[in-house]
Specification:
Blueprint lengths: L7 H11 L3 H16 L4 E2 L4 H10 L4 H17 L11 H9 L2 E3 L10 E5 L11 H18 L1 H6 L1 E6 L5 H6 L2 H13 L5 E7 L5 H11 L2 H4 L2 E5 L2 H5 L18 H14 L1 H7 L3 E2 L11 H5 L12
Parallel strand pairs: 3-4, 4-5, 5-6
Antiparallel strand pairs: 1-7, 2-3
Helix pairs in contact: 2-3, 4-9, 5-13
C-alpha cells in the first residue's frame, strides 16, 4: 500500500471532518479493490492514492464510495464530450494557455481548501466550446485527485469571474451542458465543493445562475456567493493574498500559474494517457445499463435558456 502521509494539520482535519482513521485505510482500500474486481462493467484505476481520494470524498462510507466510483466512470462513458480533449490535442494547450481555468498554487493556510478560478472571458467563444474548457478542467482535476491533499481533505473553492463575457459565452451554457457539468462535478467527483464566488456578473447572468442553482443539492445552493464588483466581500472568504497578481494578490501572475500547470500536465503525460482506458462497458453492467438519457435527461426536454 502506498499512500502519502498527511501534514499534521490536514490529518487532524481529515480525522474530525472525514472520519479518517489511519489504521483502517489499508483495509478500506483493499475492500474497494476486491469490490472493483467483481464489477464486470467497471474499468477503474486501482492506485491506492486514487482510491483514497474517493474514500475521503465520501467520508469513508464504503457504500457511498462505491456509488461515487461507479458514477465517476459512468460519466466518462455517457458524457464523452467532457473527456474528449486530451493533453496530446493542440486544443488542450490552447485552452490551458488562455488562462480560462486556473487552479491557484497558493493556499491561505496549511489546512485551507484549494482555490480555482474560471474566467470564461479569456477564451474565444467563437473558436472553443465550454465543454472543451470543462474537458481541460477535468484533466487538471485528475492530477489534483492524485497529489493535492489540501483539495482532497479541505475541499475546493471556486471563483467564477464573468468579466468580458459575451452573449456567445452565455449561449454555450445550455441546460443540457449545465446538467452534465453538475453531475460531473458535484455528483461524480470525490471533492468537497466549498462554495462558488461570482465576480463581475453581466446582464443575463441571472438566467444562467438560476439554472445552475436549480440543479445543485441543498448544501451547495447555500454556498453560492454573488459579489459582482465587491471584491472586499469576497476576501472575507478567499484571502486576497492567494490570488494572482492581476487580482491584487501575491499568488503569482496568471502566466506563471499557466506555466506551472503546463509543466504539471507534462509530468503526468504517461499517467494521463494510460488513464484514458478507464470507464464503463454498459453492455456488461449487471441489471439495466446506464444511458445518457437516464443520467442527464433527454436533450429536447429542457427549456432553452432565454437571454434578453
Amino acid at each position: 500500500m502506498s499512500v502519502r502521509a498527511l501534514s499534521p494539520e490536514l490529518a487532524e482535519k481529515a480525522r474530525k471532518e472525514l472520519n479518517e482513521d489511519p489504521s483502517r485505510i489499508n483495509s478500506d482500500i483493499q475492500h474497494l479493490k476486491d469490490w472493483l474486481s467483481k464489477q464486470p462493467h467497471l474499468r477503474a484505476r486501482t492506485d491506492d492514492q486514487w482510491l483514497l481520494s474517493f474514500l475521503r470524498g465520501c467520508k469513508f462510507s464504503l457504500e457511498r464510495t462505491k456509488e461515487k466510483l461507479d458514477l465517476y466512470y459512468s460519466v466518462r462513458t455517457t458524457a464523452p464530450e467532457l473527456f474528449s480533449i486530451k493533453p496530446s490535442n493542440p486544443l488542450f494547450d490552447e485552452i490551458l494557455s488562455s488562462g480560462a481555468i486556473l487552479i491557484l498554487p497558493k493556499t491561505a493556510t496549511s489546512d485551507s481548501p484549494r482555490a480555482s478560478m474560471i474566467i470564461p472571458g479569456r477564451y474565444d467563444a467563437d473558436k472553443y466550446n465550454i465543454s472543451d474548457v470543462m474537458a481541460v478542467s477535468l484533466v487538471l482535476q485528475k492530477i489534483i485527485m492524485m497529489e493535492d491533499d489540501n483539495a482532497m481533505v479541505a475541499g475546493i473553492l471556486s471563483i467564477l469571474d464573468l468579466d468580458t463575457v459575451k452573449i456567445s459565452h452565455l449561449l454555450q451554457m445550455t441546460p443540457m451542458f449545465l446538467k452534465k457539468m453538475v453531475v460531473a462535478s458535484q455528483d461524480a467527483l470525490p471533492v468537497r465543493l466549498k462554495g462558488t464566488h461570482y465576480l463581475n456578473t453581466p446582464t443575463g447572468f441571472e438566467t444562467v445562475f438560476n439554472a445552475i442553482k436549480a440543479l445543485l443539492n441543498e448544501k451547495n445552493k447555500k454556498r453560492l456567493y454573488v459579489h459582482n464588483k465587491n471584491y472586499e466581500e469576497m476576501y472575507k472568504y478567499i484571502p486576497k493574498d492567494i490570488l494572482p497578481v492581476e487580482y491584487g494578490g501575491s499568488g503569482g501572475s496568471i502566466e506563471e500559474i499557466i506555466d506551472y500547470w503546463k509543466k504539471k500536465v507534462k509530468e503526468y503525460s504517461d499517467w494521463l494517457e494510460e488513464d484514458d482506458q478507464y470507464g464503463t462497458d454498459e453492455t456488461k453492467r449487471p441489471g439495466k445499463p446506464k444511458t445518457a438519457e437516464d443520467m442527464f435527461g433527454v436533450e429536447g426536454s429542457f427549456r432553452q435558456l432565454e437571454f434578453d
